Amino acid sequence: MTDEHPHQLTLHEDPRSGNCYKIRLIAALLGTPLAIREYDIMRGETRSPEFLANVNANGRIPVLQIGDRFLPESNAACWYLAEGTALIPQDRFDRADMLRWMFFEQYNHEPNIATLRFWLAFVGEAHLSEQQRAMIPAKRMAGEDALALMDEHLATREWFVGGTVSLADIALYAYTHVAEAGCFRLRDRSNVCRWLDRVAALPGYVPMPQAED
Amino acid sequence: MTDEHPHQLTLHEDPRSGNCYKIRLIAALLGTPLAIREYDIMRGETRSPEFLANVNANGRIPVLQIGDRFLPESNAACWYLAEGTALIPQDRFDRADMLRWMFFEQYNHEPNIATLRFWLAFVGEAHLSEQQRAMIPAKRMAGEDALALMDEHLATREWFVGGTVSLADIALYAYTHVAEAGCFRLRDRSNVCRWLDRVAALPGYVPMPQAED
Predict the structure, then answer these.
(1) Domains detected in chain A
(2) Which of B52, B107, B149 to probe the A interface (max A CBs under 10 A)?
């Protein structure tokens, strides 16, 4: 694959982030070499003046560095890596439908399921602000709604779009498979559980790096 | 353009929604005919059993209907309509960078700027729940951050990606140009204001339908 990427690819990431793991997993599935530059988001390392000026003015990771250019937003980086591969469907409707699930992931899934994991498993409930604590029930309900929608969708199919794995599956897998760290119950979502197993069985699959330091 | 779309295209929408307007505007810029099916989100018409079963199990508009298939998520519908046109850059990095701004729009921009417009201009502050009122300051700050980032990005370029208008501009335009309805001040963001004028001057541009009933 390397000849398709004349520029060095560097992932600016925190290994505890599911958004970063998406990109690692896609690179592994495709056999694409990826250099890693780690940051500790808990120490504000993505808010330093250097990071904001040189890597991402939005102060967030992951950022995929392609030569001397920087690409923020995890799902945009997934798209960049996978263009021209079987992880993006050939069919026009399916390709847009894949993006549909990736936008769903960033709008309905990640702000609820990833945020509760971050708050409960990393920040710790005792350290949350009063306003954050007040938002937990709404995020819990919205996260359950997202999981229910996924479970219903997977009742009649093995993958989110078309007949094979696509970026939609990888984007949704990243925070779904660790949702229990945010106190979401997965075992009642049997279609989701079987799909998680399917993703983990893909040739080239790599697990998420250890969540603990 | 019609020969590129053998199936009838129908937009399921509420004309007050900026997410729906994105799709109308792209169809207008491309000269693509689009049938319209209107719903009133204030009356819960996108939560009816029929809508959930037949149009979008997620209970949201817009949905682009392509023949007998349904495509939710505004930015996925934008992608579907614009594939193969000049609204999607040819360059691989630019294409991913366009998606980067579209994911930014759905993650950092819409949940703050569109939500405050909806709460303040449509629901009315007096009818908000206590929890919604408590979220206003955080959404105000996050929305201002998004506008500041856009203004900084536009300081050195006319369009978000590459040298010409792309889906990134249309996606960000929809709720930015009506942000004042959510009590965001635009006139201090001079680069944003000039870019709004540029979008409004595009050949084929159509304004957002009247916000009032």
Answers:
(1) 2-82 (3.40.30.10), 92-200 (1.20.1050.10)
(2) B107
